[in-house]
Amino acid sequence: MTKIKNIIFDLGGVIINLDIPLTIKEFNQFTHQPFEKLYNQLQQNELFDLFDKGLVSEQTFFKQLNNLIGEQASTQQLMNAWNAMLLDFPLHRLQLLQSLKPKYRTFLLSNTNETHITAFENILWQEHQLKSLDTFFEKSYYSCRIGMRKPEIDIFQRVVQENNLIPQETLFIDDSPQHIEGAIKIGLQAVLLDKHKDISTLLKELEIY
To answer: How far is it, in rounded angstroms, from Cα 117 to Cα 112?
Structure first.
C-alpha cells in the first residue's frame, strides 16, 4: 500500500453500528411482500436511490414507499421502521477518529438521506452530546446533499478533486463491496471492512493506527 495521507470513511457499519436486517424485519411486520426484495445492502429499488440523492422529498418518499409496499401505514410507522437500522456510535470509534485527524486528512462519504441524518445526529447527541460528525472530519459528504451516491464514480471524483487528493495516497474504507469496486476504478486504495471486524482492528492491520 502506497504511503497513505488521506482517509475517506463510510458511515454506516464503519462508524455507526448498522443493522439493515432490523429495518427489513420491521417492514415485514406490516407488509405482505418481503421487504428485502426492495431493499438490502447490495441493491435497492430506485425509490431509495432517489431519496439517497435528495431527488425526492421526505414526504414524497414515504408516500411512494407506502404505495410500493401496498400498505397504508402511517408516516411515523414507516419512519420508525426506516430508522430502525441505525444503532449506536461506540465511543472508541469517535476517539479513533479524533486521534487520526491530526495525522491524516480525513473525510466522511456516506450514502444517506435527510431522515437518517436527523436520526443519527439525534443518536449522536443523546449518546455523546455532539451535534454532528463534522468535528471529526475535514469535510463530510452526504449523498442526499450532493445529488450522487456510491458506487458512482462521480462521487469519488468529486471528493478527490474538491480536496486536491492524490488517489494513490488516499485510503477509502466501506463495508459494501460494490462501493469498494467504484473507488478502485478511480485509483483509490480501497479496503472492504468485514462485518465481523471493527474499524480500529482494520486500521491497525493496515498500520494506519
So the answer is: 7
20-83 topology per CATH: DNA polymerase; domain 1 (1.10.150)
Q: Tens of pLDDT along 118-163?
A: 999 999 999 999 999 999 999 999 999 999 999 999 999 999 999 9
d(CA 43, CA 176): 10
Other beta carbons within 10 Å of 160: 21
Q: By the 8 A CB rule, do 10 and 176 touch? A: yes
Residue 191 has pLDDT above 90, yes or no: yes
Report the distance separating Cα 71 and Cα 92, nearest Å: 41
Task: Write out the residue limits of the CATH 1.10.150.240 domain(s) in the chain.
Answer: 20-83
CATH number of 6-17+90-112+129-205: 3.40.50.1000
Q: Angle at Cα 205 formed by Cα 204 and Cα 209, nearest 5°?
A: 20
Contact status, residue 23 vs residue 85, Cβ threshold 8 Å: yes
